[in-house]
Amino acid sequence: MDTNINVLDELNKGCCMGVDAIDIIIKKVDEFKFKELLENQKNGYEELCNKIDELYREYSNDNIHETNMMEKAMTWYGIQKDTFLDDSTSKLADLLINGTNMGIIKGIKLLHNNPDMDKTIQNILNEFVDYQEKCMETLKEYL
After folding, report:
1. How far is it, in rounded angstroms, from Cα 110 to Cα 107?
2. What mean pLDDT do residues 116-138 have?
3. Contact, 136 vs 41, CB < 8 A?
4. To 10 degrees, what angle do helices 119-140 and 89-113 make?
5. Cβ neighbours of residue 40 closer than 8 Å, sequence gap 6 or more
6. 96, 76, 100: which is closest to 88 by C-alpha?
7. CA 100 to chain centre
C-alpha cells in the first residue's frame, strides 16, 4: 500500500476515534464548561477529518478508512467499564487524556516510520499531533 494513503488512513482513524470517544463521554458530562470544551475539541477533530478526507482524494479514489463497528463498540465498552463506579469530570478527563496520548504516540510513530511520505501529508500529521497536544493540555485542568 502506498505510504501516503496508509498514513492518511491511520490519521483519519485517529481523528474518528477522538470524535467517537468524545461522543460517548460527553453524554456523561454535567459540568457546562467541560462539556463546552469537549464540543470544541470534537469540532477540531471533525475539521481535521475533513482536511484529511480532502487530501486523501488527491491520492486515491477509494474510501478513506474510519473506525469500524467493532472498534466503536470496544471504545464504548471501555468507557462504560471505566466509568461504572466513577464518572466524575476528573475521571472523564483522565480517560480522554489517555486516549489522546495514544493518538500522539501513534502520530509520532507515523512521522518517524514513514520518512518517504509527501510533505503535505507530513504537515497534516504534524497538525494532528499538535492539536492533540493542545487538547491534552486543556484537559489537564480538569484532573
Report:
1. 5
2. 97
3. no
4. 160
5. none
6. 96
7. 6
Report whether 74 contacts 20 (CB < 8 A).
no
Is residue 48 within 8 Å of 18, Cβ to Cβ? no
What is the pTM (predicted TM-score) of this model?
0.92
What does the chain come to in residues? 143
Q: Which among 39, 12, 53, 48 is positioned nearest to 96, based on CA atoms?
A: 39
Compute CA distances 72 → 15, 96, 117, whole Å: 13, 15, 28
For 84-105, b where at least 16 C-beta lie within 10 A, e where not — what string?
eeebebebbbbbbbebbeebbe
Using CA atoms, how far apart are residues 50 and 29, in angstroms rounded to an integer?
26
> pLDDT tens-digit profile of 64-114?
888 888 888 989 989 999 999 999 999 999 999 999 999 999 999 999 999
With CA atoms as reference, report the closest residue to 3 among 110, 107, 117, 115: 117
Q: Cell for 43?
A: 469540532
**1: pLDDT strictly greater than 80:** no
